[in-house]
Amino acid sequence: MRGLTGLLYETSKLHPVNGITYRGKDLNEIIKQSPRASGGTQPTPEGVLWLLLTGVYPNQEEVKTFQEELYQRSHLSDETETLIRNLPEKMHPMTKFSIGVMSCQPDSNFAKAYHKGVPKKEYWEHTLEDSLDICAKVIQLAAVVYNSTYNRGKQLPGPDQDLDMSANLVQMMGFSDKSFYDLMRLYLVIHADHEGGTVSSHTAHCVNSALSDPYLAYSAAMNGLAGPLHGLANQESLNFLLDFEKRFGHIWTDNDIANYVEEILSESRVIPGYGHAVLRKTDPRFIHLLEFAEKNIEENNLIRLLNQCYTVIPKILDKHKKIKNPWPNVDAGSGVMLLHYGLNHQDFYTVLFGVSRALGIMSSLVWSRAFNLPIERPNSITLDLLLEKVSSGK
Ligand code: NMX
Ligand code: MLT
Known about the structure:
One of its GO terms (biological process) is tricarboxylic acid cycle. The chain is mainly α.
């Protein structure tokens, strides 16, 4: 269905060259104009959630009140926390995260309202309640998944109502570097939405179109995000660089990178973090991460390697004519930044992508219900019928 316009999706739109806009505003503008946390250099995800929902930036006072409201909504039940803590240690964090979301589903305001028989025109209001709850709870869910997987037995701070979502998440995971708070703000802002056709947002839209509640829809979306061609590419991209480093150490040439890439391609594997279904230029989100690194992170071997890959890999991929976009996407660089701050559990990276994507997916579901969009049910065709159609020329 590449290139086929088949969805109404209100909150964002992707341009093949200029990248994503949220409510018509590009990331440069949002990063400059959206309210930032006190003492921070980056916009807060709360402000971006407000923008996605309403189409306008909140002022400083509104974002403060909104932050307080989200904090009130963020509580997890003991059952949910216990469930996550008791999941097998080796289970992938994305699986735990998705199960965690499902375990909150009995609290769905939408599901209760639907079963009480509220009129259709009120569906969006109950979807909004669930959407705000989910955006607030995912911070806590992610922290519980992280701590129960990697920080077992450690005493860690609980949520702090004076902190924004990003700072809270970083602090609850046991990190205290204020520059990491800022990276997390940038991270959660730039991953929030990528129009309606991404595997995750489209999945949420499709599931919710059956009037499955927002918890069911978001959890399904996370199962799509967990795929290596989608959100899991962020862990794969860092592993790609670390494997290269293991082999070549700190001294390598452009040729070494080129040979390494060709070797992977010859095994019919993909180069994670490169290519895109829609983008035809470097993903602006990747550039924002590089700019953050330039200002805040002292150059190290991995950052040098990341930059050199950016110079070498597109030239190699461009020679393989079937690859439509040889440029890096957001996943190429995010892991290197997280690793710099000590977050060295690659398996967890896609959970952070998922936390961020809640903002876009949840905002768009509110609009889908406000527009009363119908159940999504495209036609399909069997191979025999397809062959018949082709041979008859119709
Ligand atoms: N490495 C190797 N082969 C590639 C790559 C890549 N990075 N990108 C595209 N191709 C191949 C692709 O597998 C396909 O091969 P085949 O016909 O044999 O199936 C061919 O090139 C044509 O694909 P495109 O039309 O260029 O890309 P498509 O829209 O099908 O897929 C991606 C888009 C993003 C799935 C693809 O570029 C890819 O697999 N990239 C690596 C994984 C990745 O970084 N995913 C993250 C996407 C962003 N995100 O955050 O979700
Ligand atoms: C995303 O952010 O979801 C990815 O770039 C994938 C996409 O846009 O299809």
